[in-house]
Amino acid sequence: MSGQDYLYINAIRKKKIERTPIWIMRQAGRYLPEYQAVRDKYDFITVCKTPELATEVTLQPIRRFGFDAAILFSDILVIPEALGQKLEFMENHGPKLSPQILNEKDVNRLSIEGLEEKLSYVADAVRLIRSGLDNRTPLIGFSGSPFTLATYMIEGKPTRNFKHIKTMMYKEPQRLIRLLQLLTEAVSRYLLMQINAGAQAIQIFDTWGGILPPHLYNQYSGRFMKQIVERLKISSVPITLFSKGGIELLWQLKDSNADMLGVDWMTDLADARQTVGGFAALQGNLDPTVLYGSKEIIKKEVENILQVFGRQSGHVFNLGHGILPDIPVDNVQFLVDTVREMSTKIHS
Amino acid sequence: MSGQDYLYINAIRKKKIERTPIWIMRQAGRYLPEYQAVRDKYDFITVCKTPELATEVTLQPIRRFGFDAAILFSDILVIPEALGQKLEFMENHGPKLSPQILNEKDVNRLSIEGLEEKLSYVADAVRLIRSGLDNRTPLIGFSGSPFTLATYMIEGKPTRNFKHIKTMMYKEPQRLIRLLQLLTEAVSRYLLMQINAGAQAIQIFDTWGGILPPHLYNQYSGRFMKQIVERLKISSVPITLFSKGGIELLWQLKDSNADMLGVDWMTDLADARQTVGGFAALQGNLDPTVLYGSKEIIKKEVENILQVFGRQSGHVFNLGHGILPDIPVDNVQFLVDTVREMSTKIHS
Known about the structure:
The structure is a homodimer of 348-residue chains. The longest helix of chain A is centred in the middle third of the chain and has 25 residues, at 173-197. The first copy, chain A, is built from 16 helices and nine strands. The relative contact order of chain A is 0.14. Chain A is 51% helix and 12% strand. Chain A is an alpha/beta fold. The two termini of chain A are 23 Å apart. A seven-stranded parallel β-sheet of chain A has the order 1-4-5-6-7-8-9. In chain A, strands 2-3 form a two-stranded antiparallel ribbon. Chain A has one domain: Alpha-Beta Barrel (TIM Barrel), CATH 3.20.20.
């Protein structure tokens, strides 16, 4: 089966589809008992760096739910590590990168040399997952956006106010731009490596784009993602940009040449379709906490989303953010069944 | 001097003004050394509940910066406390309300009886602040929105995913609605008490409105604020609704009859003016972290905001969220001076 026959890719290409494809951000994760079983034996970073383990957890949700796309199990912070920062994951405290990137010297110390070699375990994982998927399900590769990566690299640890990156932005904007340029190069090379290893689609996560005021969004995040999209266009894999931050940011990505734009759950999907649906396919956007709810309400919210596109192609069903770790697995199964049944009826 | 001669109120009423008024959300707060000096001696809740102390800290930023409006020093969680929850402030861990409101019984246990009596220390503070302000600066009273208060009451403590309120909303929506109705009554009576005691304007903080998907915003937050606005219209004080959550929520407040809408810093002020500027005055919206920046960039960002209204009235300058505790006081002075000078020039 060739790439163009995948439901996920056909929906992005706005080709005729028999139902709406579905996958879930963080679908390989803690809400799955089989994932927990792996994590009981290996820590997070070991799973990321061991192709066999990354493959196993990538395939788990495909086996259980038959999602219409698999996504490489990895972490966006492997790039800062490859550039020279020390990466640690503190249980229940999130990731830590050290030393923080604050002054000119810190930026200069980062080195892109040998990036692909340092991240070859990711290429190995991609190859192994592809052979495990046996051409039935396409594999999405991914990266954080330059701005999102810079946020983690500058803050060093989870933050509420993003003081350090904001201080740099409002005090030494040229320093931040230099870092973002370096990251644009690193992300481009990293994603090309994934594509060469067999990734059949790419998603760039701009998780922290929404901490930028809209008038600065393109300057610090949007334009660098656009540069990456241009670089990746030498391949033919579809590219999705997912920026958490509402309709005003989405609007600024309309000229990005991305094949699909991710819509967060704080944005109205019908508004998004009206605003940027002519420029790209859309992915999303169920509020992840709907999965704490009753089956009746899950169904109603799914219907709400599916009716936005109706019989039209150009939509991939997903949550509007990653699935939460304590979501009942039963509700995920119910969601998948509901999207399948309901969208099959709509498209028939 | 009568109410209609205040710069802040004239700007809301879209009357001719000689410059743009400015005040800052959380202007009485930890970034001020004189506030810290008070807090070294008294804990937060004692300051809220002692009219003399509340008055002192309310007046501090007026003395130092001559802001164009004072805002009552208090906390939005005094309402849940008056309704029967236990309120504690843990140093560096935020507020705690117990027991959480989760089931039907928890809702039934809340009692609105004697609300004004229990909160009479707030009315006392309003009277004392008014006499301290000596009619030179108007006093803004405030409350949290019903939805925002419900969020704190249900979660009990700071949260990232808002699991409990979302679970109630997606599982037992009628229970949440009942709680919101009770809070609408409580907030209305609380604000009328503040107005009767001398508050010359009102602001309702819908801090957590943005955790609602836009299609559920009116149902769980917007419509209850609108009900409160209607109730307060028996007085003539201007009412501001501040909902953090972007242009799509702002649009849903256009028919609220509020005199002013607060614009958060993640929303473009020019977009906001185009969208809802015909319905209400606008307040905002400098990114609070701009105050970590250089004077050159602070000036540029202020100019950006002031140019949106130009010589037109209908704008009150403010941050797009509360001021952060570690902002240099010098930068606040520079901001105030810049807004005054620049807007005086624009309006001359």
